[in-house]
Specification:
The protein has 182 residues and is an alpha/beta fold. It has helices at residues 2-7, 30-58, 80-100, 123-131, 151-162; strands spanning 12-15, 62-67, 105-112, 173-176. Strands 1-2-3-4 form a 4-stranded parallel sheet, sandwiched between helices. Helix 3 (80-100) links the parallel strand 2 (62-67) and strand 3 (105-112). Helix 2 runs parallel beside helix 3 (80-100). The chain starts with a helix and ends in a 6-residue tail after the last strand.
Length: 182
Amino acid sequence: DEGVVELGRVDIVVANAGILNTGWSWEMSDEQWREVIDVNLTGVWHTAKAAIPTMISQGQGGSIILTSSVAGLYGQPFTVSYTAAKHGVVGIATCMANELAEYNIRVNSIHPTGVETDMAHEPDLEAMVASKAETLGPVFMNSLPVRLMEPEDVSSVVAFLASDDAKTMTGSQVRVDCGKLN
């Protein structure tokens, strides 16, 4: 409400939440699970939920972009809560895309591979991948010779999805993955 008062309207919503904890699925504590689910999944839902009524009442359509991850498209090892949450973001996006289409509100998810942020340098994850390099290391490799993307590599795709150039896209799962899933 404060944003609408200050800026006049809501046309674009970007829900970009992400925290990570790592370890074996069966060793993760309930608290670790809840923390990641609360931020990465429930926080995304709260963001969209807060903006949608205003977007509908404006009657002008709009674009909602939800940040998932390549982990939302495959079973990324050592990150069960993160992977589950990011799969859930896909469900939120596709459900809302169907629900909001009649209002000309587009909802898409983006799926980046590793991005040069603090989260990409999680020491526990790096250690686990290194310890299983022969068997699971390739799961973390990109096809393109890029170890980590820059944040701008993702934000340019977000800008496209928010633009009129993407006016016919809704419910799409846009991979920004350097070929990781090829």
